[in-house]
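Let us begin with a simple case.
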Amino acid sequence: MSDEAPDSLIPYDEIVQEALRAVVGRVLGEVEATGRLPGEHHFYITFKTQAVGVDIPRHLIERFPDEMTIVIQNRFWDLKVREDGFEVGLSFNQAPARLIIPFSAITGFVDPAVNFALQFQAQAEETGFEEHEHAENDPPAAEPVEDGSNVVSVDFKRKK
């Protein structure tokens, strides 16, 4: 018998990634509905700046040509959640900016208040993550704890 698993004809990895990105949409939708973050919750959202559908100011793309992390905490406005993504107003170096981010562009979502994190794998054409600095849209209350608890990481590798 072979130890290799057969290739699946069902795209389980894509289905799971889509479902987990829907978690981000539901959480942001609840914040939109109430107009505020509950308790100490706040979010670090990492996304691919060059992904299809991302619309952010040119100076942010120049500073973060591959990936960027924003913080939804104290200073954000006009959060609007759609089926395929969200838009939000944030301030960068005292300059307001509107960001439109499709859920498909998100590579990470962290709520450090409850030590919850989701990590998403890039699509095949988006390989080669580069280390990046966090956007300075507002100061975070605390750095996320990276001890692995409450972290969901989806990493499906197809065996050839």
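The second case is a distinct protein. As before, the sequence precedes its structure tokens.
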Amino acid sequence: MANADSDALYAGKTILVTGATGLYGRNLIPRLLAKGANVRAVARRVPAIGFGAGVEFVAGDLKEPGFARQAVQGCDGLFHMAGTRGSIGIQIKRAAEMLHDNTLSCFNALNAAREAGVARVVYVSTVSVYPPGERYVEDQAWSANPHPGNEFVAWSKRMAEKLIEAFEVQYGAKNFAILRPVNTFGPWDDFDPRTALVVPALIGRALGGENPLTVWGDGSAVRDFLYVEDAVNGLLASYERGLGQGPINLGSGRGYSVAEIVAAILRHGAPGTSVRWDIDKPTGEARKVADTARAEKILGFKPKIGLEEGIARTIAWYRARG
């Protein structure tokens, strides 16, 4: 809920966005620019499509402590969203990279921000930190191990959350916000079937003409999904009102089955396509839905865009980009 008071947190401020070329970064940066912020964007490589005026792009690897310290210098705020992600299959195949690379980049970025005195920091964790369960409530994250299919990314994210907790214990730092978003999709997502998560992977394959469309599992797995525009609203609300409040889930609070996702994609993007369910492949947890009461209470967050509309918008954007 934008107002003059909240916009003062951005206008004329230098705000660092890590993972700038990813789904969150690409959608957050225009919003920050609209609020009058000076944006410093960090990613490992120079993107083929730039960010336009008002954005200082810096290429580098946050696994290097020196680069992390350089990136945060002179910044008033940080949205740390950089990380290596992927499907369950990729997370298992690249287990060591997922744990090592994500842990190093998170620790370096967060510690550099603390040392540099960055006033406001939003750290984007993940709902995968939770152990298996029907509904995920923030205080349950450490009650058991995360699901084996996500464990290496989940442990790196858990430890970065614990580092923020340690900052408060040792230094009294209360200027960090922790968000645990659910599976987010939308424009600028990764649609490469080899690396993409479920919604963009299915969109890419369906609109690419795959018929029948092969989908892992039987379609019964239930997940909580969030359109990226709503996710960015949550990021900004967390920057404004979520500091020092502990972890906060960011999701719709509603579960959608994979079968519903597939049906919506085919409806809006590839009518007439048949589906082949590959029940021999892993599907992850049966149900993963976030409790969103804390986000609503602390951030005033409620998603505005439902799954069907979000998928339709994403497909339209994907088609427009050729």
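The chain has one domain: 4-188+226-253+289-304. The chain is about 40% helix and 20% strand.
Keep these points in mind for the review questions at the end of the chapter.
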